[in-house]
Description:
Layout: H1 8-27, E1 37-46, E2 49-55, E3 69-73, H2 90-100, E4 104-108, H3 111-119, E5 125-129, E6 145-151, H4 157-167, E7 174-177, E8 181-186, H5 189-213
Parallel strand pairs: 6-7
Antiparallel strand pairs: 1-2, 1-4, 2-3, 4-8, 5-6, 7-8
Helix pairs in contact: 2-4, 3-5
Protein name: Methylthioribulose-1-phosphate dehydratase
Binding site for Zn(2+): 107, 109
Cofactor: Zn(2+)
Amino acid sequence: MSFVNIPLEHKQTVWQELSGIKExxxxxxxxxxxxxxxxxxxxxxxxxxFHFAITASGKDKSVSTPSDxxxxxxxxxxxxxxxxxxxAETLIHCEIYRKTGCGAVFHVHTVFxxxxxxxxxxxxxxxxxxxxLIKAFNIWEENAAITVPVLPNYADIPxxxxxxxxxxxPAIPGILLxxxxxxAWGQNAFEAKRHLEAFEFIFEYIYRDLLLRx
Length: 214
């Protein structure tokens, strides 16, 4: 389906849903400065053709305006004539959608996800075992163990995007950029939000556990 054939009401629903999520995350101070980005897919999907709304670059996410979001295609190019620029990290969203076929990708910067990504950065992954919140990822084994990939935070975003397909584990809906933040995704906004909240709880737990062990 081409972008012009996607019903207007579907686009408006995506816009409204992203606005609500943005407001919730801003209230948690998950967008320091103008950092972070949110996206939500709209219309049909194939790995070679899809569209999504994403936060515009350089916007204060604690306020809502008509220019908060724009629609882009599978290559991160704007679908409509606009003076807005998509987030600098749009290409990372593109690769996550392409690899997983998910419906939403949320990226935030927090102190805990930054500290944990730095601590485990040389390992290239954060090991997690036995925590209740692992169940948020639909993993129900007793004493389950998972790892979250940690990618280098290159200044050149395409270099990061190239690493995403091989690093991403479809069973674990998140990747970290070292000293930067978490990308979490899900089949829809509700699931992506649940995954992100679970990751943030886990990262805070890991940080505090490391402090207690010293």
